Amino acid sequence: MCIRDSARTYHHLVPTKLYTLVRLVKRNQMAMDVEQIVEENIESIDLRLVEGKNCSGCNQSLINYKADAEEQEFITRCKECNHFFCLECDIFIHDNLHYCPECI
Q1: Which of 58, 60, 68, 92 is paired with 2 by a 20 to 30 Å CA distance?
Q2: Neighbouring residues of 27: CB distance < 8 A, sequence distance ≥ 6
Q3: Contact criterion met (CB below 8 Å) for 47 and 24
Q4: 41-55 burial: b if 16+ Cβ within 10 Å, else e
Q5: Phi/psi zone of residue 82: left (φ > 0), alpha (ψ -120 to 50 degrees), beta?
Q6: Is-contact 43 30, C-beta < 8 A?
Q7: Global pTM?
Q8: 9-59 per-position pLDDT tens digit
């Protein structure tokens, strides 16, 4: 195997670590049942903690929250650098890029 081939297959040998799924919730919804959060393996954070922050991949606002809707917004967080990404960028990073752009 030549160096060029090993460089092309590196991302298959060492895949990108999965990001933590983060649920954006209002402050009054933070009193969720702890067992439910552990079972779902989803981290919940207050909307105000990401207010004014943008996705580290595409630089779009992370908050597209509709106050009157019951829908829950999700984002992801890199476990190494703790930067937040939208779901579209998470998919692009894991399927195409194969490395975290903020961890480099």
Answers
A1: 92
A2: 46, 47, 48
A3: yes
A4: eeebeebeebeeeeb
A5: left
A6: no
A7: 0.74
A8: 776 677 788 899 988 876 655 555 444 555 566 787 877 788 788 999 999
